[in-house]
Amino acid sequence: MTRRGTLAYYLAAWVIGCFVISLLQWIGEAVAGEIHTASILLTTYFFSLIFGAVTILLFAFLLRRWMRLLGSHAQWAWMLSGGALALVQVFVLIRAQSALLSIRSGQFGEFLFAAVLNAADALAGHNLWQAPVDGAITAVVLCLVDRAFARADEAAEPKHSTA
User: Fold this and answer.
1) What is the pTM of this model?
2) CB atoms within 10 A of CB 160
3) Cα(138)–Cα(20) distance, integer angstroms
4) How confident is the model over 106-159, as pLDDT tens digits?
5) SS3 letters for 116-128?
6) What is the per-residue burial (b if ≥16 Cβ within 10 Å, else e) of 97-111?
7) Cβ distance 84 to 133 under 8 Å?
8) Over the stretch 114-123, which tens digit does the pLDDT of each residue have?
9) In this model, does residue 93 exceed pLDDT 60?
10) Burial (CB count within 10 angstroms: exposed 0-12, middle 13-18, buried 19+), residue 143
11) What gap in Å lies between CA 99 and CA 107, rounded to an integer?
């Protein structure tokens, strides 16, 4: 699992992506005139780690697949793709919210709703600008992680001589 940096990649996505979105939300509320302490940022980060895990891991998976398809480790490509993918993902999850609300039942439905759609629901409305910014920043970090492990794999392969 760690040979190609999978564990490091998804852990970086989870930790960095959730922190960036928490920081953006904290900054957005401070600009709006609400005064918050650092403890509010840490509390927001804690809940972001819990409720944003499924969403950010899905984002990281889709981004890695897309960039492998493109075959690029250019940071600008990862940044643009990450911003666009995050915005599309939030729109899709917000649209899926009404469908899931109509079919959910019992405690499993409540847990599934909280795990999958709560992160996107928090960004709906006036906080939607945070999704592409978070996606772009997270994608730059993920590009660096993916690139680091791709270089290690290439260097580990033995060179065969034709002579």
Assistant:
1) 0.79
2) 6
3) 8
4) 555 566 666 666 666 666 566 778 889 999 999 999 999 998 887 544 444 445
5) HHHHHHHHCHHHC
6) beeeeeeeeeeeeee
7) no
8) 666 666 666 6
9) yes
10) buried
11) 17
Nearest CA-CA partner of 59 in 32, 39, 87: 87
DSSP string, the chain: -TTTTHHHHHHHHHHHHHHHHHHHHHHHHHHTT----HHHHHHHHHHHHHHSHHHHHHHHHHHHHHHHHHT---HHHHHHHHHHHHHHHHHHHHHHHHHHHHH--HHHHHHHHHHHHHHHHHHSGGGTTHHHHHHHHHHHHHHHHHHHHHHHHHHHSPPPP--
Say what the pLDDT of residue 109 is: 57
* Alpha carbons 133 and 50: distance in angstroms, whole number: 20
Tokens matching residue 19: 């922190």
Phi/psi of residue 33, each to 5°? Answer: 105, -5
Whole-angstrom distance, CA of residue 159 vs CA of residue 163: 12
Amino acid at 75: Q
Single-letter amino acid, residue 40:
I
Residue that has been written with the tokens 């999704």 in this structure: 131
